[in-house]
Amino acid sequence: MDNLVKICGLSTPETLDAALSAGADLVGFVRYPKSPRHVSLDLGHRLSLQARGRALRVVLLVNPADEAVAQAVEAINPDLIQLHGNESPERVAEIRSMVKRPVMKAVGIAEASDLAALSPYAKGVDHILLDAKPPRTAEALPGGNGLAFDWRLLNGLDPKVSFMLSGGLNPDNVAEAIRLTKPRAVDVSSGVESGPGLKDPARIAAFIKAARTAFAAHH
Ligand SMILES: O=C(O)c1ccccc1N[C@@H]1O[C@H](COP(=O)(O)O)[C@@H](O)[C@H]1O
């Protein structure tokens, strides 16, 4: 998973087409009812068919029960499952063996000590996604808040740890984020929107172009 760009929270055929046409490597479908990007199983199924063979399809789940995992896998047939809640390393490994598909675990970063949370996941996941920790407010989502963390904190990360970077990325800052943190992949949701849940095709294209240029320069 090198030099890849993921566009997350796609919820219409038109914006999914914009992401695919602009060359997104991964496209994400959110299954979290409190999110403005939530897709029903039926819509997720149709979007997944549209993306098949053109990009890797990711389904995003938050602290899912077994039934929610099974329903999402059956309807959306994802290539990768993104777990974006407080799932323990044991629960992540359990879900991974249940679905027999690659799993990516999101870990929230706010301070240097948060990096210690990564190693317990090392054996039970396929990929790590680093995101900003969500604000401690009742209305905050577990992710998709458009908030960046201090990328310099990753100077303390073991260089052997590979990760996808997310959190507050947008077309204007993704090049600097890649230069500073050297991620294997980048992920964006709010930074390519014109309003909550409203993906903007021009911003999607600009993000992918900026990320590609930066990856070419820094890898
Ligand atoms: O996008 C959402 O609505 C969402 C809901 C619940 C958990 C995670 C969510 N999004 C993920 O959060 C990160 C950062 O997003 P942003 O670019 O800062 O808006 C990203 O991985 C999204 O996939």
Structure description:
One of its GO terms (biological process) is L-tryptophan biosynthetic process. Pathway: Amino-acid biosynthesis; L-tryptophan biosynthesis; L-tryptophan from chorismate: step 3/5. This protein is of the alpha/beta class. It has a single domain (4-218), classed as TIM Barrel, CATH 3.20.20.70. 31% of the residues lie in helices and 20% in strands. It has 6 helices and 10 strands, in the order E-H-E-H-E-H-E-H-E-E-E-H-E-E-E-H. It has helices at 13-21, 41-51, 66-76, 89-99, 174-181, 201-218; strands at residues 4-7, 26-31, 56-61, 80-83, 103-109, 127-132, 164-165, 185-188, 193-195, 198-199. An 8-stranded parallel barrel has the order 1-2-3-4-5-6-7-8, surrounded by 6 helices. Helix 2 crosses helix 3 (66-76). The longest helix has 18 residues, at 201-218. The chain is globular, with a radius of gyration of 16 Å. The relative contact order is 0.17. The site of the ligand O=C(O)c1ccccc1N[C@@H]1O[C@H](COP(=O)(O)O)[C@@H](O)[C@H]1O has 28 residues, from strand 2, strand 6 and strand 8.
Quickly give the structural class.
alpha/beta
N-to-C terminal Cα separation, in Å?
Answer: 13 Å
The CATH homologous superfamily corresponds to Aldolase class I
CATH topology: TIM Barrel
Overall number of structural domains: 1
Keywords:
219 residues, TIM Barrel, eight-stranded parallel beta barrel, globular, binds ligand LGQLAAA5
